[in-house]
């Protein structure tokens, strides 16, 4: 098993290979991470791993909460993730390559990264200024009939988009090119469809592209059928927009 050690960035969301991740960094542990990444030579990738939080808090508590005003605050790299951070995170995450790391005057950072490779969490080190992890890189196997499944998913996704646009009383932008490479299709659809974190996590950790596409086909058909019978949709953008201050 080949492993790599990288800084670890837990989020209340799932990052997929090929997808862009904007971050607003203000916590000191993640500021320290970005300062170290900036030391990486410009011709080398500035990599860190993103994992979805299973049980914990993305932003560490800064004051005692109600009703217990005497609560002892946890500080340090693992604050918000309990005594054993490994248990607080989903097992499969994604490596992010930070193309842009811009420090602001107040010491916070504006970061723009892109997901690259899936990884499996092996262990977490809490001894430094921020979490680091030993990670096993996961190959993307195509599986059986991935090409045909990708075509079916794209058709279902276009139908889903049309239904969604109609339910929101909007016009659907036309002429947008969609990819045809099965793995790229599977990750694009996983990120674009309105799903909760557990559903997205299941898609990320699918054993191969074909398995991911099969699950997406089922999800798209189900979601399209639901939209067809709804007179209107809730304001889902309120929950789908960026919520992380980190």
Automatic annotation (TrEMBL):
Which parts of the sequence belong to the Lon N-terminal domain? Answer: 6-224
Which Pfam families does this UniProt record tie to the protein?
A: LON_substr_bdg (PF02190)
Instruction: Please give the superkingdom of this protein's source.
Output: Bacteria
InterPro entries the UniProt entry points to: Lon_prtase_N, Lon_prtase_N_sf, PUA-like_sf
Q: Which SMART domains match?
A: LON
| Matching PANTHER family | ATP-DEPENDENT PROTEASE LA (LON) DOMAIN PROTEIN
Q: What is this protein called?
A: Lon N-terminal domain-containing protein
Q: Give the organism the record lists.
A: Streptomyces aurantiacus
């Amino acid at each position: 098993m080949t492993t790599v050690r990288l800084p670890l960035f837990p989020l209340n969301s799932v990052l997929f290979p090929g997808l862009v991740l904007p971050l607003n960094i203000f916590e000191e542990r993640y500021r320290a991470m970005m300062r170290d990444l900036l030391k990486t030579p410009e011709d080398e990738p500035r990599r860190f791993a993103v994992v979805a939080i299973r049980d914990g808090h993305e932003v560490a508590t800064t004051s005692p909460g109600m009703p217990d005003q005497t609560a002892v605050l946890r500080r340090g790299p693992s604050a918000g993730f309990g005594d054993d951070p490994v248990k607080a995170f989903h097992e499969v995450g994604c490596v992010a390559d930070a193309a842009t790391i811009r420090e602001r005057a107040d010491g916070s950072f504006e970061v723009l990264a892109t997901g690259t490779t899936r990884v499996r969490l092996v262990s977490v080190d809490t001894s430094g200024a921020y979490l680091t992890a030993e990670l096993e890189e996961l190959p993307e196997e195509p599986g059986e009939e991935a090409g045909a499944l990708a075509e079916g998913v794209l058709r279902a996704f276009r139908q889903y988009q049309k239904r969604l646009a109609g339910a929101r009383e909007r016009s659907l932008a036309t002429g947008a090119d969609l990819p045809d490479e099965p793995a790229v299709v599977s990750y694009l659809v996983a990120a674009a469809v309105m799903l909760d974190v557990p559903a997205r996590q299941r898609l990320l950790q699918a054993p191969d592209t074909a398995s991911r596409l099969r699950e997406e086909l089922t999800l798209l058909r189900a979601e399209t059928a639901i939209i067809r019978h709804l007179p209107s949709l809730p304001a889902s953008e309120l929950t789908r927009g960026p919520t992380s201050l980190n």
